[in-house]
Write a structure and sequence with these properties.
alpha/beta, disordered N terminus, 497 residues, two-stranded antiparallel sheet, globular, 10-stranded mixed β-sheet, 38% helix
């Protein structure tokens, strides 16, 4: 459908919905096309954008949802078949695909300062580091995020079990992607999927679902600050121990470590705290109440050395310090500020100094300052996707079914079946929600045999969950993806061991 006719159709539907008192809605299946350009690493890139809606069908071919997406293709490409396609998701679950779209890989980036803090008037600028120079990109909003909705939006006719759970999410999105790739004539292209936070779980599962259910084989999976429910939702020695390297990083940033550590560079101290976590702290916590008092005291003293907290605080919590306690109390005596959950660089002010957790997440309130006005402005005014439907930054997707999470093994099996498939993991050292060491641990656990470990790569950055908000990391993280895409294209090599 042509851009002008689609725009007319949307306007017609909105006008008549208002005239007849109908509820606000957008077309189930439509595309709005615009053209633009951006200068990336000094080179002018002309591109086409499709802002569209594409249905999700049930087994009988009836639309049961429609997903909103934004698809970028570089113009003047002679051989589209050899040009990569990157499929991008955010996480939540329930988060729109806005964060990486307008702050990381796309051709437009938030108007923020160099460290990622909001600047008024809100808006967007060109992204001089976008990877659109080397790959086309589609940003997909799962059901109830962005403008995506179930059909009907509410009521007993909506079967929530088809959408709102780890395995349901993976299944319908794999089917949706089959349709998108077919409509876009991209079956021959090298394909990559990227997911942030819960999106890491999503893309691990999609890697196998696309192969086994859609016969679509990938060249790469990119996990940005991945959330691994095998650790995050399980209490015990592993989840309790893995936070220590993050505590070291965040305390170093706030100059809260002993001088012996504080006077060194971050990359010079992290290997030691990581080794201590695996070799000493984890087995110590595993002993539970049967650990000797001597060993418990020694471990607490070393944890205090690496975390910026006091030995007494650690002893009082039996060596397992909750992240919320750390956010609340790291700077309690120094400045009285709390630190951000998703990015420990951000500071908050609570009602009172005492307590076990912050009153609010300092970083997310800052980010919503910038992202919400920017995505609404961008889609409606620059991409001409006109609608009165609310853009859901976070959508109603709960209760979410986390059962039967086999996504780690899904990724392993997909890699075993597909010699082309490689994995890049990107994390910010100051992310306290899905910590960088947790991401490393996930990477280590995907393939217990170690026979595919040369196909994994980890990159860390001196920022938080959305490391790309910091200008220095925006450049380096995009360069890392660009390099990953370049080296994982087959270039005529057979897919065999």
């Amino acid at each position: 459908m042509k851009a002008i006719s689609c725009l007319f159709l949307i306007s017609f539907l909105f006008i008549n919905a208002a005239a007849f008192g109908q509820s606000r809605k957008i077309p189930v299946d439509t595309i709005i096309t615009t053209k633009n350009k951006v200068t990336i690493n000094g080179t002018l890139v002309n591109y086409t954008v499709q802002a569209g809606m594409q249905p999700v069908w049930d087994e009988s071919g009836k639309p049961i949802a429609s997903l909103q997406y934004t698809y970028y293709t570089r113009d003047n490409i002679k051989d589209r078949a050899s040009r990569p396609l990157l499929i991008s998701f955010n996480g939540g679950p329930g988060s729109a695909s806005v964060w990486m779209h307008l702050a990381y890989t796309g051709p437009r980036v938030l108007k923020i300062d160099d460290e990622g803090y909001p600047v008024q008037p809100y808006g967007i600028n060109e992204n001089p580091y976008s990877i659109l120079d080397v790959t086309d990109i589609v940003y997909v909003n799962p059901v109830n995020t962005g403008y995506s909705r179930t059909i009907p939006e509410t009521g007993d006719d909506v079967d929530r079990k088809k959408f709102f759970g780890i395995n349901a999410d993976i299944k319908y999105l794999a089917e949706w992607l089959n349709t998108f790739v077919t409509r876009s004539n991209r079956w021959r292209s090298p394909k990559y999927i990227i997911g942030e936070s819960y999106g890491g779980t999503r893309v691990m599962g999609l890697a196998l679902a696309l192969q086994d259910q859609q016969w679509m084989y990938l060249n790469g999976v990119i996990m940005v600050s991945p959330a691994d429910y095998k650790v995050l939702r399980e209490d015990g020695p592993v989840s309790g121990a893995l936070n220590l390297p993050y505590y070291t990083a965040a305390a170093w940033h706030h100059k809260a470590l002993p001088a012996e550590l504080q006077n060194k560079d971050l990359n010079d101290i992290l290997p030691a705290t990581e080794a201590y976590t695996i070799n000493t702290l984890l087995p110590a916590i595993a002993k539970g109440g049967f650990i000797s008092e001597t060993e418990k005291n020694d471990v607490a003293e070393k944890m205090a050395f690496y975390s910026g907290l006091s030995k007494k605080e650690i002893m009082d919590q039996n060596l397992i310090v909750p992240t919320q306690y750390f956010w609340k109390n790291l700077l309690k005596e120094k400045s009285g500020h709390t630190i951000g959950r998703l990015d420990g660089r951000y500071l908050g002010i609570d009602k009172q100094l005492s307590g076990d957790k912050p009153d609010y997440n300092a970083e997310i309130t800052s980010w919503l300052h910038s992202f919400t006005p920017a995505i609404n402005y961008y889609l409606q005014e620059e991409l001409n996707f006109k609608t009165d439907v609310k853009y859901n930054m976070f959508g109603p997707v709960h209760p979410w079914d986390n059962s039967k999470d086999n996504t780690r093994d899904n990724l392993r099996q997909a890699m075993a079946q597909n010699p082309y498939l490689n994995v890049l993991v990107q994390s910010g050292y100051y992310d306290g929600a899905t910590t960088y060491f947790n991401a490393k641990y996930t990477m280590w656990q995907v393939d217990p045999s170690g026979r595919m470990k040369d196909r994994f790569e980890f990159k860390g950055y001196r920022s938080g969950h959305m490391m790309y908000l910091r200008k220095e990391d925006l450049k380096s993280a995009n360069d890392d993806i660009r390099a990953f895409i370049s080296k994982t294209q087959a270039k005529g090599k057979s897919a065999k061991y």
